[in-house]
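Lecture notes, continued. The same structure-token format from the folding unit now serves as the input rather than the output. Read the line below as a description of shape only.
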């Protein structure tokens, strides 16, 4: 009986793919993920933003690939055998690839175990923080939840 009550207290359950960028863990809502692929040759595209690494071909579809590290103003990517490209479903069924250092696990979090975070640019909030919508608490520690809406908005600005 207590187990049932504990489950109800979690709120809405959402699954996240837990990725690693440097020493930090981030969660991406699984509903945004189309595919996870091993690193492959990325074809460079001239005159694009510094964080856009180029394009890849996924099932006959050309997908732009960005460095999430550079986008979030972190150190440049260090590609290893654990590096992956996560293919995200953006608006209007377009796909965007992001390079991550490692994909760790799938984690289910209740909405009540995620604390929303807000940052104000005028209070010295770093650009990195604008991509974080909340921090999830689980048995293994804390995980920052990525706000992919912000990544996509920035992506749209880059195309304009």
């Amino acid at each position: 009986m207590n187990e049932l009550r504990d489950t109800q207290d979690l709120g809405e359950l959402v699954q996240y793919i837990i990725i690693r960028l440097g020493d930090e863990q981030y969660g991406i809502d699984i509903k945004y993920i189309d595919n996870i692929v091993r690193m492959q040759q990325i074809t460079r595209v001239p005159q694009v933003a510094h964080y856009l690494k180029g394009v890849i071909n996924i099932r006959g579809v050309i997908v732009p690939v960005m460095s999430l590290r550079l986008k979030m103003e972190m150190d440049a990517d260090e590609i290893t055998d654990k590096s992956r490209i996560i293919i995200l479903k953006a608006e209007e069924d377009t796909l965007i690839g992001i390079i991550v250092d490692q994909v760790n696990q799938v984690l289910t979090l209740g909405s009540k175990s995620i604390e929303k975070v807000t940052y104000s640019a005028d209070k010295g909030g770093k650009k990195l923080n604008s991509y974080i919508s909340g921090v999830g608490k689980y048995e293994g520690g804390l995980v920052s939840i990525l706000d992919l809406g912000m990544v996509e908005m920035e992506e749209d600005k880059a195309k304009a």
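Point for the exam: Residues 1-7, 121-128, 155-160 have pLDDT under 50 and may be disordered.
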